[in-house]
């Protein structure tokens, strides 16, 4: 990039819009390192784990209803709870994925 003046100036023009000096290798390496760390932090947020566990609980709860007399006695409440857990788990996973894509 440094050898061709047109490319260097175009990269500086783009970098000026985003606040990064793209021809400067050290600045770009620091930016990429920071972005990689941010992405790794975002992947390990509790919302993703909680969303997955909640979704699994909501999906598997209906299969446990025949095994438990208490759940079988309150069928509609158990199915409503399973539906609510599924919706909440899916929403948490969508939120976690959106945050991950943003990072």
Folded structure, characterized:
The chain is an all-alpha fold. The protein contains five helices and no strands. α3 runs antiparallel to α5. It is rod-shaped. The mean pLDDT is 84.
Helical content class: over 70%
Q: Which structural class do you get from the secondary structure elements?
A: mainly alpha
Are there runs of 5+ residues with pLDDT below 50, and where? none
- Give the SSE order as H and E letters: HHHHH
How big is the Rg?
A: 24 Å
Could you say which overall geometry the principal axes of the C-alpha atoms support? Answer: rod-shaped
Q: Overall mean pLDDT score?
A: 84
Strand percentage lies at under 5%
* Number of helical elements: 5
Major pleated sheet: none
Distance between the termini: 27 Å
Write down how many β-strands occur, each being a DSSP E stretch of 2 or more residues: 0
Blueprint of the fold:
Blueprint: H1 5-18, H2 25-43, H3 46-64, H4 69-73, H5 75-102
In short:
The chain has 103 residues and is mainly alpha-helical.
Protein traits:
single chain, 103 residues, mainly alpha, 5 helices, 83% helix, 0% strand, rod-shaped
